């Protein structure tokens, strides 16, 4: 009888161990919280971030889940530091929102004349910045998952058609900071920095005369009714360099196999995914604009020449600063443009 009692006791103990093991395995699942500052229905959120999150869960067989928040945990410019400091696990954002020089080499993704579609620019940007320019070295405290860019940047305003370089003078335009803010100021524009979510109110109230945005933003942020002119130029008047990062400690806690699965979905693969979303959104924006009063025109030779002159100056200054860090910025920029097919 004592033997049978002992066997039952051992069985219960073993069952307890199995249950405990199951609980440990369940707790081993990692949920990564993504702070998302674009509107929840923005194409980048709906068609890139959320599908990527779903794919991460599938690729890791449920061991790693990404929860995309409907509301951000902080202001857009704070998002890199939020990932670094563990306020959020995953964030995305623009390097130009961070106003110090820690992302100097990222500026390669902001210049004029980079490419005519977001897929080509995003893939080339990842290859060059993450490659020869050591992007990981500029993203201390986080794991750099991917880099990408939006479609060709344009100048939209409600005052006049830009027919001479002097027509820029006096315009009040929202810019995302960085290179395009410097370029616009050089052309006589009064620039204002604000998050995309603030633009509609400022534009509709006349606080600003226009914006520098790709075409998709006119639809995404409902700006078309408050604009009259949009100017394009080959390769875009500017672009924006975007990051997707995860807190380093959170990344380190993930198994090697799951890290590999996530990396296969990130890097160049995510750059292409995000680029395709931007291109589709630009097409949607263009379709909307075609039904409005907005006049879309390409920069004429005089305006193009003025922009090229100033762009070359800023590129040379950047290349010198990057050279002081031990990198060949001029060669990297030439490689990026070669990959996207732009002649400058």
Please provide a written account of the structure.
The protein is built from 13 helices and eleven strands. The N terminus is likely disordered.
Name the structural class. alpha/beta
Topology, number of strands: 11
Report helical residue fraction.
Answer: 40-55%
**How much is the radius of gyration in Å?**
24 Å
The main β sheet shows up as:
6 strands, mixed
Strand order of the largest sheet: 7-6-8-5-9-11
Strand content: 15-25%
What gross morphology would you assign?
A: globular
Give me the strand/helix succession.
Answer: HEHEHEHHEEEHEHEHEEHHHEHH
The unreliable regions are 1-28
Overall average residue pLDDT: 92
**CA(first)-CA(last) distance:** 92 Å
Number of helices: 13
Short descriptors:
single chain; 344 residues; 5-stranded mixed β-sheet; 13 helices; disordered N terminus
Question: How do the helices and strands line up, and which of them pair or pack?
Answer:
Blueprint: H1 2-27, E1 30-35, H2 43-59, E2 64-68, H3 79-85, E3 90-94, H4 118-129, H5 135-138, E4 142-149, E5 154-157, E6 172-175, H6 178-186, E7 190-193, H7 196-204, E8 210-213, H8 216-220, E9 229-232, E10 241-247, H9 248-252, H10 256-265, H11 267-289, E11 295-298, H12 301-323, H13 329-340
Parallel strand pairs: 1-2, 1-3, 6-7, 6-8, 9-11
Antiparallel strand pairs: 3-10, 4-10, 5-8, 5-9
Helix pairs in contact: 2-10, 2-11, 4-11, 4-13
């Amino acid at each position: 009888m004592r033997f049978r009692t002992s066997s039952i006791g051992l069985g219960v103990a073993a069952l307890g161990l199995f249950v405990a093991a199951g609980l440990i395995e369940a707790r081993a699942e990692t949920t990564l919280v993504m702070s998302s500052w674009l509107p929840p229905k923005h194409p980048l959120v709906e068609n890139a971030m959320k599908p990527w999150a779903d794919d991460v869960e599938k690729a890791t067989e449920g061991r790693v889940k990404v929860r995309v928040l409907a509301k951000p945990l902080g202001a857009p410019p704070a998002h890199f530091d939020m990932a670094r400091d563990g306020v959020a696990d995953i964030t995305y954002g623009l390097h130009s929102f961070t106003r110090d020089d820690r992302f100097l080499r990222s500026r390669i993704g902001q210049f004029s004349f980079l490419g005519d579609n977001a897929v080509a620019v995003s893939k080339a940007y990842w290859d060059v910045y993450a490659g020869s320019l050591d992007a990981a070295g500029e993203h201390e405290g986080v794991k750099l998952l991917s880099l990408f860019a939006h479609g060709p940047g344009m100048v939209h305003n409600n005052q006049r058609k830009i027919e001479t370089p002097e027509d820029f003078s006096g315009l009040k335009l929202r810019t995302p900071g960085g290179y395009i803010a410097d370029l616009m100021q050089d052309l006589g524009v009064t620039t204002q920095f604000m998050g995309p979510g603030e633009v509609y109110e400022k534009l509709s109230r006349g606080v600003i005369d226009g914006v520098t945005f790709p075409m998709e933003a006119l639809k995404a942020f409902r700006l078309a009714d408050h604009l009259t002119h949009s100017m394009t130029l080959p390769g875009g008047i500017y672009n924006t360099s975007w990051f997707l990062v995860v807190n380093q400690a959170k990344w380190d806690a993930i198994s090697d196999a799951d890290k590999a699965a996530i990396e296969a979905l990130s890097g160049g693969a995510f750059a292409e995914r995000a680029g395709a979303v931007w291109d589709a959104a630009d097409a949607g924006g263009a379709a909307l604009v075609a039904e409005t009063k907005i006049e879309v025109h390409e920069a004429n030779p005089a305006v193009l020449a003025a922009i090229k002159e100033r762009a070359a100056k800023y590129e040379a200054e950047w290349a010198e600063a990057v050279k002081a860090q031990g990198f060949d910025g001029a060669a990297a920029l030439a490689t990026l443009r070669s990959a996207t097919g732009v002649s400058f």
